[in-house]
Amino acid sequence: MDEKQLEHFEEKLIEWKNTLLREAGVTITENLSEEISRQGDFGDLANKETDQNFLLRIRDRERKLIQKIDICLQKIKDGTYGLCEGCGEEINPKRLEARPVAGLCIACKTEQEKHER
Predict the structure, then answer these.
(1) In sequence order, what are the residues at sequence separation of 6 or more whose Cβ sits closer than 8 angstroms to the Cβ of residue 46?
(2) pLDDT, tens only, 17-42
(3) What gap in Å lies between CA 91 and CA 81, rounded to an integer?
(4) In three state form, how does the secondary structure of the chain look?
(5) Based on the number of CB atoms within 10 Å of its own CB, is 10 exposed (0-12), middle (13-18) or buried (19 or more)?
(6) Which residues, other chains included, contact 31 with Cβ-Cβ below 8 Å and sequence gap of 6+?
(7) The domain 1-81 belongs to what CATH superfamily?
(8) What is the rounded distance in angstroms from the CA atom of residue 85 to the CA atom of residue 90?
């Protein structure tokens, strides 16, 4: 992968990470500033709790995604970004465009999914 492509993916990863961090900050700010109201019926309280749990699951997935982004940013610095962790071949740039945190080429990912079934 050439230097220009690496710069493109680095910018894309940093922008994605910043967006995720910004959204997490908004969630925390909204939850902290929102007065916890114990008023309302049990249905309202249950709905509020369900919504909050759902949001926390989303944020946990995003936290894991941020970790993957950080790994990819380190790989860019190390010169190993875009190399398949399975076979060592270069991952198609179109795949990285669609999924910048991809660690496996299509062939290795397909094989991995077969074994997971």
Answers:
(1) none
(2) 999 999 887 766 666 555 455 566 78
(3) 9
(4) CCHHHHHHHHHHHHHHHHHHHHHHHHHHHHHHHCCCCCCCCHHHHHHHHHHHHHHHHHHHHHHHHHHHHHHHHHHHHHCCCCECCCCCCECCHHHHHHCCCCCCCHHHHHHHHHHHC
(5) middle
(6) 52
(7) DksA, coiled-coil domain (1.20.120.910)
(8) 10
Q: In whole angstroms, what separates CA 54 from the centre of its chain? A: 17
Query: pTM for this structure?
Result: 0.80
Locate 104 and state its tokens: 């496996």
Confidence label for 68 from pLDDT (cuts 50, 70 and 90): very high
Nearest CA-CA partner of 105 in 115, 95, 113, 97: 95
Residue 94, amino acid:
K
Task: Give residue limits of the domains in the chain.
Answer: 1-81, 82-117
CB-based contact 75:81 (threshold 8 Å): yes
**How far apart are the C-alpha atoms of 15 and 27, rounded to whole Å?**
18
Structure token pair of residue 6: 């690496």
